[in-house]
Amino acid sequence: MHALSKGKTQERHYGLQLAGTSTFPAEVLEDAKKIAEQLDKDKKVKQQVTQEEIEKRALFKLATRLIQTARNSKLDQDGLRLYTNSLKKTYLQCMQRDDIADNADANIEPEGNDDEPVEKDGD
How far apart are CA 94 and CA 58, in angstroms? Predict the structure, then answer.
């Protein structure tokens, strides 16, 4: 027995399951299941992020940080060197991660740094 309630179900293809309890012809239900399976496969393919896309995103974020630093930084030479080394380290770690494809929005922010380089005291 099925009961209708407000909200989202955790079951996959609930509509097909419900249709199976009705008087729909078996051929129609089989065709609908095949179509649903193909749609699921197509969705998974579209959701996969290639390594090339990941690298492009990481490179874009790195380039943005470098441009911002070049335009706005008031760091002295040592502070700038530390910041750019941190960017490099974070970028390289991002490129070496095996599970990065699972996280399309991988963050390449340098560890311990915000969006902008931190100024040293006395500058």
Answer: 7
